[in-house]
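Here we describe the complex-level prediction in full. Unlike the single-chain runs in Section 2.1, the two entities below were treated as one system.
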Amino acid sequence: MKKAVVLYSGGLDSTTCVAIAKSQGYQVYALSFSYGQRHSVELEKAREFAPKLGIAQHLVVNMDMRQIGGSALTADIDVPGADSEDSHIPVTYVPARNSIFLSYALAWAEVLQSFDIFIGVNAVDYSGYPDCRPEFIEAFTRMANLATKAGVEQQGAYTIHSPLIHMSKAEIICAGTGLGINYALTHSCYDPDSQGRACGRCDSCVLRLKGFYAAGLEDPVEYQPRTGE
Amino acid sequence: MKKAVVLYSGGLDSTTCVAIAKSQGYQVYALSFSYGQRHSVELEKAREFAPKLGIAQHLVVNMDMRQIGGSALTADIDVPGADSEDSHIPVTYVPARNSIFLSYALAWAEVLQSFDIFIGVNAVDYSGYPDCRPEFIEAFTRMANLATKAGVEQQGAYTIHSPLIHMSKAEIICAGTGLGINYALTHSCYDPDSQGRACGRCDSCVLRLKGFYAAGLEDPVEYQPRTGE
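The structure predicted for the assembly as a whole is:
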């Protein structure tokens, strides 16, 4: 059985990626990072959900990105609501995050003798992150095949799969639902409360809610009750 | 003053890189990794030497590569002598290491608003590591300029400097000596003894000793006494 390394955050997109990789016949090795996320609930959820996804292994790598800073997700910067963005690229952008995550996935793939890496990046509803675009994935693939022993010995062997890249959030949700995903076992919110309930207002929640609405489906995760507005 | 991030291991090549970056007018931000090296003396030496190099900051990032394994430098595989290699790429190769290190350097550079990264890779005496070749550096640079907010906003702004890439070890030592480096403040050995003395037999020691010999200079670091052979 072919092995694939799938970048897995416990979120909607990466969970859909796990299901897609499985549907293509891969044995899935899910890779998460403890990188100093301000809200550790994301990682807790990933640890809780992963064993329910029928995968071969879930590895959580420790890598402290707070030492670098520069992002609302790792440094002490407020996470804004989706409508308060005034820059093309939001403050939740983490410098070079996908380069670091994919490089680590490449290292693990090489050790596992896998040549397939899945990443749930999306260039449609993508919030302006530069490292979610097809041209980035293509440049990374080229680099990967020059960077590694396996890439050199079997020229061009590595493929970075980004099956969601041209899909809308609604299409992703439809595809995942068709593959039997229970989206209650996913977490997207940048700013959950102490009970882990989604805020419904951050960039990530708004994209998610719009996606479920457009797909004509109900989001099964729990949201914080709204105070009178 | 322009800032540069320099990948710094405490070794001969990366220390020479620090000196070259300084000689080109950069303020140096040295980046080291605690990645689960089997011999922590390398990192101890880097911490000890860095403050003596006249740099702006030394950052040591924690990132456990032992979780991935696959290399004699991080897993429980014997480090061979230089003459026992039977593969083109040695067991001391760490999967995707330079991709991971450069991605991290890219993240820090973006936060520092620096567009220059120095790495002391070398393709002449290079031991067969695929991620030490010019084609890898070129592919990484292209990726870096697509991966980042700063790269997108200022197209092609990032430069990965690899000033040693076409130099022999002897030429590197001559260049560094000319820039005033005290090579006693560097450490290369993969297999030092409990007192931190170099073994004189591993791949890295043999390259270093040959370099000093070819440069007509004496290596000032301390080696383990040889037992009768």
